[in-house]
Request: fold
Amino acid sequence: MATESAAVKPSTIGAWRRVAGPGAADRGVKDEMRCNLLRKLEARETLFPGICGYEETVLPQIANAILARHNFILLGLRGQAKSRILRGLVNFLEPEIPYIAGCEIHDHPLHPICRACRDIVAEQGDDTPIAWLTREDRFVEKLATPDVTIADIIGDVDPIKAARGGRNLSDELTVHYGLLPRANRGIFAINELPDLAGKIQVGLFNIMQEGDVQIKGYPIRLPLDVLLVFTANPEDYTARGKIITPLKDRVGSEIRTHYPATVEEGMAITAQEAWTQRSSGHKLQVPDYIREVVEQTAFLAREDKRVDRRSGVSQRLPIATMESVISNAEQRAARNGESHVSARVADIYAAIPAITGKMELEYEGELKGAENIARELIRSAIGKVYTKYIADANMQPVVQWFENGGDLKIPENDTAADQLVALRRVQGLLDHIDRLGANAKDPAAAAAAAEFILEGLWSHKRISRNEERGFFAERPKPAEPREQFNRPPRRQYN
Reply:
């Protein structure tokens, strides 16, 4: 809504009326968002800063819903940025708007809907004082739970108000307003809508459809100016009619969110969200191939039949894993007194506790165990990334070194320099680290790259590895000699 350009904001209805732009005084929240969205589109501004991977899918649909002045619902599994998108809707609101000072539901100065404000305006007219509401205060969010009551959402009769004012309980002035009326002239968001009790959904439907509600049996007219937005899990949304049909029918747009379509999109989200800039005094480096392994682990988990797909694998999995990978590298640097350290494959395995808690397993997965599945996913992810970087390299000299009896165990807590000394023993191993962007002059990067190559060979079953021996090659067992049986002498027949 248009505001004054003067340094001092108007403080009464009359003063504001004189500086308000033509038509701005009568514009509702949906028209306000629509106009601001069109302005952003024309200026080619980013609509939802910080949201990656939805530029061609979800965001255009949200823009359509706003332009159509629709209430809408976002359907998606956990960790698909639904709540962040809803909170980003405030960017389509004006920085500040005026309201009648002291009003609990931020009544429009020219169109008050509550009884108290109507009485004040009738008495004071243009001298009625106004205050200013910021866009952040115009967003109200509620997590739906089964114990939410109609009083929480709509309101309830306040007997203390009635007693202090000497009013009848049926008087509108005795109402204590809930969250939805307090979101008047703003955005009201409900997360996990299917968990809301049916009678509460009826109350929402009544507000959307008729603008009225009954509180303790007393009908109250509340023509609220509000954008209603919801989130839900698609499994809950469609199961057993958890959203009442009249409410579902009046939600203008149903928009489905999704996980990143490509590993690159996932890496961009993880890089944006993960806490990677540490102030420990150690230079922490995370090679691209390590980032890809972390992201690929999440992609493989979403496809694994042992992981419950209905629950989904949140994007928080690679984010938390990346933070744990960096923490393990940071810990190693602190223990060894190294100023520069690079994340390694071993750090990904050390981050398994950040993976297991974010996967809901099917029966087969429960039998296998979350930690074992996490290890298998990491190994498979390493194999995929190894194929991308090293597939066409001649690794036969490295494999031959192990087949000739070579064993190599890399102590996890050794310094990068000590690890590199051990890795140099493997014939031809360091010849390929440049494919991973590493240089032999940088011990931390070279040791991490060499270890990754060995893990890739193990993933492709060209060498073996276990906790006791480290990397080795299974020698073929010699053929067992066939048993010799003494034949009985042949009978002679006369």
Notes: The longest strand covers residues 226-232. The domain at 13-256 is CATH 3.40.50.300 (Rossmann fold). Confidence is low (pLDDT under 50) at residues 1-6.
